[in-house]
Amino acid sequence: MIRNESEYQEAARRLREERERLAEHVQRLEGLGLAAEEAKRALDPLRSFHDQLAEEVESYERLKRGEMGELKNLHGLGSTLVALRIALGLTQRELAERLGVHESQVSRDERNEYHAITVDRASRILDALGVELRSAFEEPLRTLREELPRVGQTGIGN
After folding, report:
1. Degrees (nearest 5) of the Cα angle 31, 33, 34?
2. Nearest to residue 9, comparing CAs of 70, 76, 74, 56?
3. Superfamily classification of domain 74-138
4. What does pTM read for this prediction?
């Protein structure tokens, strides 16, 4: 995940270089007269890396435009906190100032995607970002209530 503008600039530069490198390989393989399947096999690793890098660059660009997906569960909370900061147009330094910590702390936390973050800390970050979480438990709870067996009906709890 690209977390800041300098990482974005570096990734965009690498993507341009990889695009040129891939085009050179295509020309070289065409010159060797390889069968289409052989050329594909030779190019697949390069295309895979190129596609992955392109997706990271595009993802960062979407976040910069404020386009974010939903937080489906708490397993994605760390990357969502990073994405929120980017989507809001804040730098790591600005978030650090709002939190009263050093920029290196935010950088380290984001690099680790806030691994093992506490609820209190996540709440402070959300407050610093000015973001309010809302749950959408009602519909899933109604469905689960209907699907879950009742205690005593299936031998559970006996």
Report:
1. 120
2. 56
3. lambda repressor-like DNA-binding domains (1.10.260.40)
4. 0.75
